[in-house]
Design brief:
31% helix; 527 residues; Luciferase, domain 3; GMP Synthetase, Chain A, domain 3; single chain; alpha/beta; 13-stranded mixed β-sheet; Rossmann fold
């Protein structure tokens, strides 16, 4: 049975037993656990005084700064619901997320002040605006630092529940983002943050241990990988290190890892490891990274060659590659240490995980049949305001409720799970299914191809033609005949791109995943 744990209770209890340990580092600034507790108490009280009540939604329109961490802790303490906002959204996208979430408070970075000013009149439900700056650029906003820096910092004394919610908005390939609704207790259980019966017992265990992990989430906190990394580090009484300016840049990241003696790093596959490796190759002897024990990744393909090379620079690290989604973690995992070998997209299947066909027939290991990964156990309640999509993604099969986000795979005879890709991006070419991620990973092994996004475009003969949008060294055109021998070793011929389009534009989200809508728009512009 899942313990009735709440993040607010956990943070409060941990701060009481390790007040002098660091909780957040951001450049030269350090916030210790005791101060973190007091600042978040003040912010929680302010939000409640502004008229927010249990369950009220708070929109986080923020980069990776201490404000994000403190705001979530304050929301958990006040029993308010986190709603993440992708800071790359504009206009209608922003309006949808903030409006769809029913946010009554919006907290934003000053760089987004113009967008907030433009949207404010169209969001009448918002009672309070907080700007992560002093003085504020918008006269209708309150300065966040003024709120957390003074006032009543005593514990709130309220009774919290493990059924309190947080939202995780996740973007799809079509339509607007949707909010996955997680109860605190279920998320705590599913990612293994604590098996304690209550917050006090958990905090006592934290106090008995040596200082917790020093964790650097290189990926955005606004996405599930970075957000979950933040929660895990806090629940272990650790310290979260955030990159100056709140943005990922390879050299700044490596320097901060060394300077802050970071022990754990969170990235999103090759989109982060490739630029890190480019920097480390250029300066192979500049940094000592031996203190890093773990590099975790989720959300995008992490190729075996990149893993192998990273371990040359992080000799004592374990590379932990996790397969999961906003709708459910722990689908499968893969670990690699120096001297070991793993295959790209090959995972050990997780607990409470099965693979089903589209008609809910279980796929047998070694059958060669493809299927959808399904996770049972502690799951989200569903999607906010979308019962139809909830029913599709969280079906009940033989009396058991599963999360089936749409990831296709094959199960080998030994139980190894081979990830093929997300079904919503699947290409149907001449009646054959092609999963873009599989082709993308093959293309990135070709000399000169730095990145790839594979899409299906309308074709009179094939229905859809496999087309690759690629970034190459020097924007040099791809010689399809030169690439073909490599692809023949990795892919069936029907999976080969029928056309290559070279671009110098970025087609990935900040979290490292391919932005297929942006990629398609680039292809349309260049056609």
């Amino acid at each position: 049975m899942t313990a009735d744990l709440n993040y607010g209770d956990l943070f409060e209890a941990i701060a009481q037993v390790i007040p002098e340990r660091p909780a957040i580092r951001y450049g030269d600034r350090e916030i210790r656990w005791g101060e973190f507790d007091r600042r978040t108490n003040r912010l929680a009280r302010f939000l409640l005084a502004a008229g927010l009540q249990t369950g009220s939604k708070v929109a986080f329109y923020l980069r990776n700064t201490p404000a994000y961490v403190e705001l979530f802790a304050a929301c958990a303490k006040a029993r308010l619901t986190h709603a993440n906002v992708n800071y790359r959204y504009v206009g209608a996208e922003l309006l949808h997320v903030i409006g769809n979430s029913d946010a009554e408070a919006v907290v934003y970075d000053p760089e987004f002040a113009p967008q907030v000013r433009e949207l404010r009149s169209r969001l009448p439900a918002v009672k309070i605006w907080l700007e992560n700056a002093a003085p504020c650029l918008n006269e209708f906003s309150h300065a966040l630092e003024d709120v957390v820096g003074s006032g009543n910092d005593a514990p709130l004394g309220n009774k919290r529940s493990g059924t309190d919610l947080y939202f995780m908005y996740t973007g799809g390939t079509t339509g607007y983002p949707k909010a996955v609704m997680w109860q605190h207790r279920d998320r705590i259980a599913v990612i293994g943050m604590s098996d304690a019966p209550d917050a006090a017992t958990h905090a006592a265990r934290v106090a008995e241990q040596s200082p917790g992990p020093v964790t650097l989430p290189a990926c955005p906190l606004m996405h599930s990988t970075g957000f979950t990394t933040m929660l895990s580090a806090l629940c272990q009484g650790g310290c979260i290190v955030l990159l100056p300016g709140g943005l990922f840049e390879a050299e700044a990241c490596i320097r901060e890892i060394e300077r802050s003696a970071v022990t754990r790093i969170a990235i999103v596959g090759d989109p982060f490891s490739v630029p890190l490796l480019e920097y480390l190759r250029a300066y192979p002897d500049r940094h000592d990274l031996s203190q890093v024990t773990t590099i975790t990744s989720a959300g995008a393909m992490w190729s075996a060659p990149c893993k192998r090379e990273l371990l040359d620079y992080f000799p004592n690290a374990t590379l932990a590659d996790a397969l999961g989604s906003s709708e459910g973690s722990g689908l499968a995992s893969s670990q690699m240490r120096r001297g070991e070998e793993v295959a790209t997209a090959a995972f050990r299947i997780g607990a409470n995980v099965k693979v089903f066909t589209e008609d809910f027939r279980e796929v047998l290991p070694g059958s060669g049949e493809t299927g959808l990964i399904a996770k049972a156990g502690a799951l989200p309640l569903g999607y906010y305001k979308d019962p139809e999509r909830t029913a599709r993604t969280f079906p009940v099969i033989d009396g058991v409720r599963y999360s089936i986000p749409g990831d296709w795979c094959r199960v080998e005879l030994d139980g190894t799970l081979i990830l093929l890709g997300r079904g919503s991006n699947c290409i149907n070419t001449g009646g054959e299914k092609v999963y873009p991620e599989e082709v993308e990973e093959a293309l990135k092994q070709a000399p000169g191809i730095q990145d790839a996004a594979v899409l299906g475009l309308p074709d009179p003969r094939w229905g859809q033609a496999v087309v690759a949008l690629v970034r190459t060294a020097g924007n040099v055109a791809v010689d399809a005949e030169a690439v073909r021998p490599l692809l023949d070793q990795l892919l069936a011929r029907y999976k080969h791109p029928k056309r290559y389009v070279v671009t110098g534009e970025d087609f990935r989200h900040d979290n490292g995943k391919v932005n297929y809508r942006a990629a398609r728009a680039l292809l349309d512009q260049m056609s």
